[in-house]
Design a protein that fits this description.
Blueprint lengths: L1 E2 L2 E2 L8 H17 L7 H23 L5 H13 L7 H14 L5 H23 L8
Antiparallel strand pairs: 1-2
């Protein structure tokens, strides 16, 4: 749907980028169920937290679209991470590399998930670079 030449979405859940990030976080959750119990408080918790944070920050940004600076700042939380100055999506990619190296994920699984986060990062940067296309009037 279009509104005044702009893309129109009712909720953040209508966004392809949100759907991709959510589906990928859920896939990570499913894979991480098979990680060793000794990883529960390290790799398992970290990879689940960072993958979910991308979705949560994107949902939060969506609610801030009336205010350009707030919208962009919240999107940057997805890209940089609010406190850690590090990308939630990129942090997830690091945890994926550990999971592959520790043989908790196959190389193919790791590559697929890593590539999805590259796509998420790319789309977030595109929105951040052109926020006016997404703002409410």
């Amino acid at each position: 749907m279009e509104e005044k030449g702009k893309k129109y979405f009712r909720t953040h859940e209508d966004l392809a980028i949100y759907q991709l990030a959510f589906e990928t976080a859920m896939q990570i959750f499913e894979y991480s169920k098979k990680f060793p119990v000794e990883e529960k408080y390290s790799l398992t918790d970290q990879i689940r937290r960072s993958s979910r944070s991308v979705c949560a920050n994107l949902a939060g940004a969506w609610k801030k679209r009336r205010y350009r600076d707030a919208f962009v700042a919240k999107l940057n939380d997805c890209v940089r991470g609010a406190c850690r100055r590090q990308s939630e999506a990129a942090e997830t990619q690091v945890w994926l590399k550990f999971a592959v190296k520790c043989e908790y994920l196959t190389v193919e699984q790791g590559r697929e998930l890593y590539a999805r986060y590259n796509q998420v990062l790319s789309e977030l940067v595109e929105i951040i670079t052109h926020p006016d296309d997404w703002l409410l009037d």
